[in-house]
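Follow-up to my earlier ticket, as requested here are the two runs.
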Amino acid sequence: MIDTHCHLTHPRLSNEADAVVARAREAGLRACITIGTGIEDARQGAALALRHPGFAFRAAGIDPFTAHAIGDRFDEELEAIREACQGPNCVAVGEVGLDYHYDLDPPAVQASKLERQLDLALALDLPVVIHVREAHDDMASLLAAHPDNRGVIHSFTSGPREAEAYLDLGWYLAFNGVLTFKNANEVREAARLAPEDRLLIETDSPYLAPVPLRGKRCEPAYVVHTLAKLAEARAVASERMEQVTSRNATRLFGFETRSLNA
C-alpha cells in the first residue's frame, strides 16, 4: 500500500512523526507522501523524508489557504517552492488548487495562483496534487486549459459527474476515509466507475479517519481500511486492489526511478 497524501508535519502528528512512520511500516505500507502546504511545511517534509529514505517522499506547493494568508508574498514563496521541488525525494507539486467553501482569495486570483504552479510543475516535469472544494466546474475547465499537466484530484469526495470530468481529462482520483462513511454512496459510485489504472488511495492524515476509526486522529497506517472499502466497492480482492493502487502511484509519482521500500 502507498498512502499518496498525508500531512506528517501537521502539529497533530509532527511530534511523533517517526513513530507514525514506524506504525505505517508495520501496517504493510511501502511508502507515503507527506504534503507541503507552504515553504515552511515543505522544509519540514524534506527533513522527514531524509530521515526515512525509500519510504517517506514529499510534495511542495502553495495551497489556497496559504496563498491567501501570505498575500503579496506569493511571488517570493513560489520561488522558494521552486527550489524545494528540485530537492531530493520530492515527487509532486502540491497541494495546490481552488477552494470556494471558505472566504479566501477571489476565484480569479485563486485560478491565477494555481496556473502559475501548474506551469512550475510542467517546467519541472512533476505531477500535481490538486485540492478542490466547491469549485469542480471551474477546476475542470482550468485543467482542460492545461492539457500537458498530469496528476491527481486528492481527497475525491464527490460523485460520478465530477469524477467523469476529471477522468476524461486524464487525471487520477485518490480516495480517502470518506469512502468508508455510511452516507458516501456517491463517492463509492465514482470509485466503481473509475478505470482501474486511475485509482489511488490516501489518508489525508490527520484528517478523515476511516470507519471503524472515524473521529480519531488519522495516520497513514489507517489507509488499509480505505483500501478494503475500495476493493469491496469494486468487487475485487483487497490484494488485487493493493497491487493496482500501488502500481498506479508508482507510475504517477515516478517511484520506479527511486529506491522504494519493498
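Run two:
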Amino acid sequence: MNFENKLISGLFIKRYKRFFSDIRINNKIVTAHCPNTGSMQGLLNKGNKVWLSKSNNPNRKLKYTLEIIENNKIKVGVNTHSANKIVFHSLKNNLIKGFKNILEIKPETKFGNNTRFDFFLLSNKDKIFIEVKNVTLSREKGLAEFPDAVTARGLKHINELIKASKKNFKVFIIYLIQRDDCNSFKIARDIDPSYANALTKAVNNKLNVLCYDCKFSSKGIKLNNKIKFLK
C-alpha cells in the first residue's frame, strides 16, 4: 500500500474524544483525525514523533490523518483503514501463502443480515471469507498482542466466522501487525477474556489464523514476514 501523498512529520501532543489528536508541526498545532478505535496502549506518549497524511478533499473538516507513531524508535501504523489496503495489495500480488488459484477478490462482502467481512475470495475450489485485524500493541519485547481494549465488534466477527464455517466457507482471520519488531503474536487474554475464549472456540471450528508484520518505507507500508501465532 502506497501513500497517496508524502507524509508530514510532527510531534504527538494528545489524543481526545477518541478520534482527535493534536500534533505539533514545526511551530503550529493541528488537529488530526485518529483512525483507531482501540486504546493505542503504549503509543500515546507526548513528544513521540508521528507522521500524518494530508487529504486532497477540500470539503474535509480535518485535513490531516494520523498514520504512524514512532515509539522507542519503532514505527507503528495506527490507521486501521490501512490494514485492509495492505492486505488487499498482498492478495492481488499473491504475497500471502495459502491462497491459490484465486478467481475473484471482493472487499467488504455481506454475510447474513448484519455482517460484512473484509474480503470474500473465490477460488476454483473454495469460497473464502477473511477478516483483518490491525495490531499495534506490544507489551513484551518481540511479542505483538490483540486486542488493546475490549472489542465487542471483534467478538461479533469471530462468532460470524464460525457461522460461515458451518455453511462450508473457508474462514480466515489475519492479524496484521503494523510494526516490524515482533516475531510472535498472541491474544491479550487479560484485556479481553471473552474475545480470547471465542477465538479458541473458532479455531476448533476450522478458523484459520494468519499473522504478518509490516515493512515501512517512505512510499508506504507493505506486508512483510509471517510470524508465529502463540495459542
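The only thing I checked on run two: The domain at 8-77 is CATH 2.40.50.580 (OB fold (Dihydrolipoamide Acetyltransferase, E2P)). Let me know what else you need.
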